[in-house]
Write a structure and sequence with these properties.
Elements: H1 3-7, H2 22-25, E1 28-30, E2 36-39, H3 46-57, E3 66-68, H4 70-81, H5 94-110, E4 115-120, E5 125-131, E6 134-137, H6 152-168, E7 182-186, E8 194-204, E9 208-217, H7 219-222, H8 226-229, H9 233-244, E10 248-253, H10 260-274, E11 280-284, E12 295-298, H11 305-320, E13 326-329, H12 335-346, E14 350-355, H13 363-370, H14 374-377, E15 383-395, E16 401-403, H15 412-422, E17 427-429, E18 442-452, H16 456-463, H17 467-477, H18 483-492, H19 498-504
Parallel strand pairs: 2-3, 10-14, 10-15, 11-12, 11-13, 13-14
Antiparallel strand pairs: 1-2, 4-5, 4-9, 5-6, 7-8, 8-9, 15-18, 16-17
Helix pairs in contact: 5-6, 9-10, 11-12, 16-17
This protein binds zinc ion (ZN).
Zinc ion (ZN) binds at residues 396, 398-399, 431, 433-434, 438, 441.
Length: 507
Amino acid sequence: MQITNLIDQLLTREGGPLRASPILRDKVAIFADGRCLISRPNGEDVDVISLVALAGRLGVQLKAPEYVDLGSLRSLYADNDAGESGGPRISRDDTSMQREVFDLLFRARQEGASDIHLLVEQDMVTVQMRINGALMPMSSCGASGGELKWRPEHGRQICMTAYAMAAESGTADSSYDPFGFQAGRIVGGLPEGLQAVRLQFNPVGYSGRHMVMRLLYTAQTIGDSLGDLGFSEAQVALLSELADQQTGMVVISGPTGSGKSTTLERLMRLIVGRNPGECVLSVEDPPEYKLPGVIQLPVSNLRSDEDRDVAYADAVAAALRSDPDRIMIGEVRTRATAHHAFKAAMTGHQVLTTLHANDALGVVPRFRDIGVDSYKLRDPSLVRAVLMQRLLKRLCPRCRRAVDPCRAGLSRDLARRLTGFLQGRPVFLPGPGCGAACRQGFVGRTVVAELILPDQKLLSLLCTGERQAAEKHWKERLGGLSMLDNAILKIGDGHIDPLQIDNKIFI
Ligand SMILES: [Zn+2]
């Protein structure tokens, strides 16, 4: 797919973004580059005038109309339908636009950003990137470093070019619709350290456009091991034991943006490395990371949730019929997928998956809500492990400040727990910031997690809704450490700021 084809796009084609009736298509043709062809007698036609006005309102930079005869208009549409570029070509330097997209990604990658947000509005463009979980303006390149300023038309072209790059990768529909919801992925020609870039395009009010680019880093960039992500030594040891198991389910949970897919990816790498000669299949919507040694079945570009759920369950069923040793299921959302996941576990496979739940103890009740039978949920050889995680900002070790826990401005509960735990040691708060990698006292993010390896009693209590008893059993009999316990260990080590705990999640 060449960008010129997209830019030449006939906006008024059948099914195009500017919906024109067949009668209207005998009168006018409008292209994304602003060219406007009108059949000679229809220059004053009210419908033509209002369609042209609509194109203008939607951000098309209209050029002076060219008057043509009816025959040329009809053959133009016919050529376009036949898949040829019917419109007059404009010369445009594709590579220079692609270079700009590359440059944008390069700078975001240098800053360690997770996402780029580009918002095109009627008279301005805002470009932001998310670093350590917070959005901040993206500055222009060069020494001036001022805020990036683009004209709306330029912003639209950046969106269109990014889309074309995804289409070239074969991961997007072939035609860009400036007014629709679309998605895609760029997988080739990226800055070093990036494995892929996931794109989401949203139409916004007043003919604006919102593009979100999710940067997916290679393992080498973030660090190869689970320990690098922030899991405690004890957790790494337990996860590593799980990698040696042949059967049972490992369920990872956490809100959106909690790093679940990165953990899943590291775990899969560990498993594949430890167990050569196995058939490992994954079903993902779509695959986030390339996993060497894993046959990745994509479920992608489906318009409705319903279609997606059906396709997803079908893909999992197909994976089960494909003589697998292990299966990774990107996410369990529906009864059908849960059914297949448990079936795989019950027939002697290891299954790794993610599920939305509020905490690790909430995973079993969530499965029950989806419709999994209790007798399956009570079996610890099926529900082997449940991991819940969040991402917290990591304190910069160079400029962090030591403070007495009672003077850190914490809630009374947390201050009391910390004072008891720290025994006179200080807590650390973010410093003022000290260099390129350090942003207002933080460098990157770290996982805080809780990991449950349940026994039958714990699962039974969870199945019957006795949550408090389950929690007590987990902590007292199974030595469970909650996310708060693990966060306190990290506060003690000076890795995280206790105020994040108070504000964010735990209390
Ligand atoms: Zn610092």
